[in-house]
Structures are given as structure tokens and as C-alpha cells.
């Protein structure tokens, strides 16, 4: 069913009893690296902000500039550069080590501070009367990557370098990589939650960029090597990419090296199907993460990458809704025109 809302399609619904009480609309695309659509829902040409779903694209200049090697960054640092992490002990350990490599301090990160998503770390801060720092920010790894490039090219006066300014050489590199990978030129931009520029593209262009991460045909050998290193880092360190009880970590632990997933704020999700050379991108119009998580898991299950009978996967695909007395009242699930009874999705 196509809605009247800018071509968005009903993708996820919430049932109370046997009646649909609420619905989430949106767009989705599965593309190859040439931009050929293999499957779509809603309007794949809808222009969106990818938010944090494109962090692997934003991390490419870290490697291509030689900055990662100059500062002897390891796989764990590269994984953190691609992460929306929970700010747990393991994440902080990598971030602090990275800062030491740069001989810089927390104050040099321009991402701002927020409470960690990690429950243990949050309790630790409360118990010790401490406040969160920039290192707890889920985007601190991305900013450490930007700061590393800036530090590499200008060894002095680093405190005055506004590496998140749209005209800064770092962001010029990021935009260039973004345009080349998505095929979407002259994008608009707005500030992300971490104050870095976030460039627009269509849903299908975002899916194409993920396919290029899976199969970077036509790119330079330098970019191919950079992509391979980022993919390996993410797959080797799924916990660093998100954290305990986070969907990206859970799914990649189940991926057996076959796919990579990445959440973005406001209902965005991406997936890289490595062996198939395909990319997935989706956007829930109202920004609901509950819907984007349900949809990405449902699509991956229909494609055969996840087991719909796995209780933990089933609880995401058909998330039970209970009231304050713990009585079941309904369920959140993909619309039947999306799930189609679990019929395999053949691309």
C-alpha cells in the first residue's frame, strides 16, 4: 500500500489485539554497485540524511590520506571510527589510547558530551560523581578519525583547527569520498548530532554506496585496500561498533562474515551484503528506531541471512508489546506485504 506521504509505503505496523493501531511508513532500496535497483519499497529516490549509517564512508579519508598508518592505528581504532558506540569501558579504552597516539586531549574533540548508553559506565559515573566527556559520545571514534587527519596534515596549532567546518580540508575529503561512493553529487548538508556535517543523498544512492563497500569495482587500489581494512576491522570488532544489547553488535555476531549493518539516527539503517555485492538502505519517515530495527531484521531474514526461528531474532521481527501489568497487548511487526509469510526474497 502506498501512502499519500511523499510516496512512502507502510512498512511496519503495531497491532493492539487484532487491529492495526499505528503504522510506520518509509522507503527502502537494495542496489548493486552500478546503481541497479534489485528491490525497493516506497520511493527509493527520496532524499535523506544518512546520519551515522554512513560512518564507513566518512572513515575512508582516514586511511586514504595515510593518517591511520602514520599514527599506527590498529583494527580496534578503525572499528571505533565506524562506530556509534555505547561509551562502555572497552570503547573508552580504545578512545583514550587513540588520543595518546595523537598526543592530544579530550578537549580537542568537537563532538560534545552526552551520557553513555552503556548501563555499567553510566552507573560508574553516578557512583563517583563524574560527568560524561566527549569520549562517551557515540561519535567520538568518528571525530578521532577526523582529528587524526587534521593532526597529520598540520602538526602545530591544532587547537585552532576547526576540523568539522564544512570548508576544512578534512570535510572536503569526506564529501569527495561520499559523492564518489554514493554517486550523488552536490549534496546539501546539515550538522549531525555530533556537530559534523552530514551530507544528503537518495535512499538508493545510500544503498549503492553500501554495495560499493561490498564490491569496490572501478575504484583505485588505494580505496579498495582502505575498504578492505575497514570491513575487516568492523567484522573483527562488532562490540566496538555498538555495544552490549545493541542491535548492530548482535546482528554482526550472527553474520558469519557475510554482512555488515549500521544504524543511523531518525530511522535509518544500512546493510552491506559482502558476498552478493549488494547494499541495503532504509529510512522510516517518522524516524522511529523500533520500526527501522524491525524492518532491517525482517529483510535480512527474508534474504536468508538471519534465522526467523531464532527467539532473539523473532522478538525483533515480532516484538511483543506488554502493559504495566506485563499483560500482552499487541505486537510490532513488518507489514504483511513486506514479510509475505516469510517467503524468500530472491534478488
Could you characterize what this model shows?
This protein has 347 residues and is an alpha+beta fold. It has a single domain (9-342), classed as Beta-lactamase (3-Layer(aba) Sandwich), CATH 3.40.710. 39% of the residues lie in helices and 20% in strands. The protein contains 14 helices and twelve strands. The strands form three sheets. Strands 1, 2, 3, 8, 9, 10, 11 and 12 form an eight-stranded antiparallel beta sheet that branches. A two-stranded antiparallel ribbon has the order 4-7. The chain has a two-stranded antiparallel sheet with strand order 5-6. The protein starts with 8 loop residues before the first strand and ends in an 8-residue tail after the last helix. The relative contact order is 0.18. The mean pLDDT is 95.
The coarse silhouette is: globular
- Indicate the mean pLDDT: 95
Relative helix content: 25-40%
Whole-number total of structural domains: 1
The ordered string of helix (H) and strand (E) elements is EEEEHHHHHHHEEEHHHHEEEHHEEH
Q: Mind describing the biggest β-sheet?
A: 8 strands, antiparallel
Treating each run of at least 4 consecutive H or I residues as one helix, how many helices? Answer: 14
The radius of gyration is 20 Å
Tell me the total number of β-strands. 12
Instruction: Report the end-to-end length measured between terminal Cα atoms.
Output: 21 Å
CATH topology: Beta-lactamase
Indicate the structural class: alpha+beta
| CATH architecture tag | 3-Layer(aba) Sandwich
What is the chains' assembly state? single chain
Low-pLDDT stretches are: none
The CATH class = Alpha Beta
Strand content: 15-25%
